[in-house]
Design goal:
The complex is a heterodimer of chains A (about 575) and B (about 240).
Chain A (H helix, E strand, L loop, with lengths): L1 E8 L3 H9 L6 E5 L15 E2 L13 H11 L6 H21 L13 E2 L9 E2 L5 H15 L4 E3 L1 E9 L2 E9 L4 E12 L20 H8 L4 E2 L4 E8 L9 H4 L3 E3 L20 H13 L9 E4 L5 H7 L1 H11 L8 E10 L2 E3 L11 E3 L4 E2 L12 H22 L7 H20 L6 H15 L3 E2 L1 H18 L13 H25 L8 E2 L7 H4 L1 E8 L2 E8 L13
Parallel strand pairs in A: 1-2, 1-9, 2-6, 9-16, 15-17, 18-19
Antiparallel strand pairs in A: 3-5, 4-5, 7-8, 8-9, 10-15, 10-20, 11-14, 12-13, 13-14, 20-21
Helix pairs in contact in A: 1-4, 1-10, 2-3, 3-10, 5-14, 12-13, 12-14, 13-14
Chain B lengths: L2 E7 L9 E7 L7 H11 L19 E4 L2 E4 L13 E4 L6 E3 L2 E2 L2 H9 L19 H11 L6 H5 L1 H5 L6 H11 L28 H5 L6 H24 L1
Parallel strand pairs in B: 1-5
Antiparallel strand pairs in B: 1-2, 3-4, 3-5, 6-7
Helix pairs in contact in B: 2-6, 3-6, 6-8
The chains are: A alpha/beta (about 575), B alpha+beta (about 240).
Chain lengths: ~575, ~240
């Protein structure tokens, strides 16, 4: 029987931070469907925010100013006590990462360098060139090796085991053996990342299917604010590989087909460094009005930065452009278009990362505390993963230490594993049926077309209809391959159910929310309405389908105001 | 233009030996080999198994052999490939788990051997470590290593002698040697003062050639050799005194 005190699901920044901050006396393990170094955290480029006040233009920065920018950026939907935790802990978190070996770029005085980012009053984004996520992930993994934390690699968690309102572990698919079996744990921490691949155009890795969020939902844990989906303004046209906000932070311009810096029409003060929701909408509007190129993109011009600065500060961006677009940004502007990037919503947790289910915690992109509200600030996602990952590790440890838990119901868990194997065998036994990869294609086109940057009631209603059709089709799906080992078909088969659930919750939340706030833009309700919509959407799965409820936002120092940039 | 993709298939629990299977697929010239593999899997044979994640050459999951050249499938673009068919095989010198999945256990074992973590003791300094820009610029190229194992698979010395820990692990050690925050004892370098360590390298620089991130691991191996020799000479002088 596989058994741990704390089982962390996901080996990205949040998961590894949780592992490193769990009580070392407890038996902690990390499960990941890929090797931890393949986690999507590697793709974060531009940086991580903390009010270190190292930048000569940012000497007056404080964590409170960081908190204000975050709350304003969130369109006031973030919970202000949680934001205070995020921003206050940021400084210590950065120095700890530095002490563990993260090779942050430096200023001439030897201090950690900081660059400007969108929507921020001061240059407070710490970075390692333009590969910040990669170096932090590698560093945390290295420290996990030092601590000899055990990993289950190539294991896909398929089910969260909840009995009598308490989490007892997970059911997992061991890809190497093909077995499906329970892994018991006194506390489970989900750090499973986002669901970007639910959309056609996304900056996310192929593996970001949202399984963790869906599994929590299926186990009865509520999801919060799922209608808030971040579209990053600048992804490489066609491939949708992220082109960091740091490119604009370093001084890059956005140009339409008339050669004009069109951001002056949308955010005259902040220009290219307005928050992401505003810049993404501006770009899409330019394209829709025929001021883009080929009906699909505008230009990000870095040429005036000069070769030296590009090579020093943005080497990966140059590498991405050379390799994937065949152009050199030193000489040619980069064709860019908005693409899904991040989920502000997620598993409903409080500022200690605890969910309503005892023993079940979540942190990072899969969770919604909420610190991002309706729109996340650039440079706050790595920070959230690190700070709340640590909190989740500590909370799970305290829970395990402080409770006398009865032994898990082993027989029931085994029955549940068998049940899943049986369900998957049914998919396999069919002679004909739907190809799950093709259903997947239909889903992501649907979500991009109907639940993208601009939304209307009609589109959202149509999309919900189509989700029901896809669900019907999914029940007719079948598995082609004979082998159960390293079966990616099986993974997609399991996760596709989550993708359908997530999509439905996004669409429902978006349809009900008859206002425009942050990333959620309703063409039929184009203004923010604090009465009644200054509240969180909370959706719970019931036998009769999703039940939509609402909860007040925790306000604080900063009163909701109109957002101007 | 449609191309033939000759892909190695093997499930050691079911098949006697590996075999090639041919698929015809019509990619865009801008597609990557990873996109081709996904299209073939999604539309022709959902049982085809290969590792992937980021699709932008930063996670290191999709290293394989493409027309005999070891690289990342996501970074290899169709228009840059000559000839037809395109031959796709798993990384060489490693055990096949299924199709293009290989067992990287020897690679990770070698990596762990060098104690690949920064050793700083105590609490972080209140204002962070002060490190010069120049020093950090020396560390950063190594930090762009994504542990894809291309260098390890391409290394003739590692192919010949499975005790040799290979280029990535040695480069990682040099990365920590160069980092002023690292407090590992100086004699810990002697761990790699052996044929299984720095002296196992053939200095044919295959690792530098195949590295998809331009890390130049062989330069790290040479630097470690120089550091070890310098230590020996210093010790000789001490003995003379």
């Amino acid at each position: 029987m596989l058994e741990h005190d704390i089982l962390i699901v996901g080996g990205g920044l949040a998961g590894l931070s949780a592992a490193l901050n769990a009580d070392p006396k407890l038996r902690t393990a990390v499960v990941s469907k890929v090797h931890p170094l393949r986690s999507h955290s590697v793709a974060a480029q531009g940086g991580i925010n903390a009010a270190l006040a190292n930048n000569p233009d940012g000497r007056d920065d404080t964590w409170e100013k960081h908190a204000f920018d975050t709350v304003k950026g969130s369109d006031y939907l973030a919970d202000q006590e949680a934001v205070a935790v995020l921003c206050r802990e940021a400084v210590r978190a950065i120095y700890e990462l530095d002490h563990w070996g993260v090779p942050f770029s430096r200023f001439p005085d030897g201090s950690i360098a900081q660059r400007p980012f969108g929507g921020a009053g001061f240059p407070r984004t710490c970075y390692a060139q333009d590969r910040t996520g990669q170096v932090i992930l590698h560093t945390l993994y290295e420290q996990c090796l030092r601590r000899e934390i055990p990993f289950y690699e190539d294991w896909l968690v398929t089910t969260l085991i909840v009995r009598d309102g308490r989490c007892e572990g997970v059911i997992a698919y061991d890809m190497a053996s093909g077995q499906i079996l329970p892994v018991f744990a006194r506390a489970v921490v989900f750090a499973t990342g986002g669901y970007g691949r639910v959309f056609l155009r996304t900056t996310n890795a192929y593996i970001n299917l949202g399984g963790g969020i869906g599994m929590a939902y299926q186990a009865g844990v509520p999801l919060k604010d799922m209608e808030f989906v971040q579209f990053h303004p600048t992804s490489l046209y066609g491939k949708n590989i992220l082109i960091t906000e740091g490119a604009r932070g370093e001084g890059g311009y956005l140009l339409n087909s008339e050669g004009r810096r069109f951001m002056e029409d949308y955010a005259p003060k902040s220009m290219e460094l307005a928050p992401r929701d505003i810049v993404a909408r501006a770009i899409q509007t330019e394209i829709d009005l025929g001021r883009g190129y080929e009906n699909g993109y505008v230009l990000l011009d870095l040429r005036h930065l000069g070769k030296e600065k590009i090579l020093k500060r943005l080497p990966s961006i140059r590498e991405i452009c050379l390799n994937f677009a065949g152009l050199d940004p030193v000489e040619t502007p980069i064709p860019i278009q908005p693409a899904q990037h991040y989920s502000m919503g997620g598993i409903d947790v409080d500022p200690t990362c605890a969910s309503p289910v005892a023993g079940f915690f979540a942190a990072g992109e899969c969770a919604c505390v909420s610190v991002h509200g309706a729109n996340r600030m650039g440079g706050n996602s790595l920070l959230e993963a690190v700070v709340f990952g640590k909190i989740a590790g500590a909370s799970a440890s305290a829970y395990v230490r402080g409770s006398h838990l009865p032994p898990p119901d082993e027989a029931a868990a085994r029955a549940e594993s068998l049940n899943l194997s049986e369900r998957l065998r049914k998919f396999r036994d069919r002679e004909v049926g739907e190809n799950v990869f093709q259903l997947f294609d239909r889903l992501k086109i649907l979500m991009s077309e109907k639940a993208g940057i601009f939304r209307t009631a009609k589109n959202l209603e149509d999309a919900i209809e189509e989700i029901h059709e896809l669900r019907e089709a999914y029940h007719r799906a079948f598995i082609f391959g004979p082998s159960v080992r390293y079966c990616q078909e099986l993974i997609v088969m399991v996760e596709f159910e989550s993708m359908l659930d997530i999509s439905e919750v996004i669409l429902l939340g978006a349809l009900r929310r008859e206002e425009t706030r942050g990333s959620h833009y309703r063409r039929d309700f184009p203004v923010r309405l604090d009465d009644p919509w200054l509240r969180h959407t909370v959706v719970t799965k019931t036998k009769k389908g999703p039940a939509v409820g609402y909860r007040p936002v925790t306000l604080g120092t900063y009163e909701p105001k109109e957002r101007t940039y | 233009m449609a191309k033939t993709f000759k892909i190695l298939r093997f499930d050691p629990t079911r098949d006697d030996r590996p075999r090639f299977q041919e698929f015809v697929h019509d990619p865009k010239p801008t597609d990557s080999i990873l996109e081709c593999l996904k299209a073939i899997r999604d539309r022709q044979d959902p049982s085809l198994a290969f590792r992937y994640s980021c699709r932008e050459a930063v996670c290191g999951a999709c290293a394989m052999s493409i027309n005999g050249r070891i690289s990342l499938a996501c970074k290899t673009i169709v228009r840059n490939l000559e000839g037809d068919p395109v031959v796709i095989e798993p990384l060489p010198n490693l055990e096949i788990q299924k199709d293009l999945y290989v067992d990287l256990a020897p690679f990770w074992k070698a990596y762990r051997f060098v104690e690949p973590y920064l050793r700083a003791e105590g609490e972080p300094p209140a204002q962070g470590h002060r490190i010069s820009e120049e020093r950090m610029e020396k560390v950063l190229p190594y930090a762009s290593c994504i542990m894809c194992a291309c260098c390890y698979a391409a290394c003739p010395a590692a192919a010949r002698d499975d005790r040799y820990i290979g280029p990535a692990a040695l480069a990682k050690l040099d990365r920590f040697r160069l980092d002023p925050r690292d407090r590992r004892p100086k004699e810990s370098l002697e761990k790699v003062d052996s044929p299984a360590g720095v002296w196992g390298c053939d200095t044919v620089f295959r690792c530098n050639d195949v590295c998809p991130k331009d890390v130049r691991p062989a330069d790290g191996i040479e630097a470690l050799r120089r550091a070890l020799v310098a230590r020996k000479i210093a010790r000789l002088f001490k003995r003379d005194k």
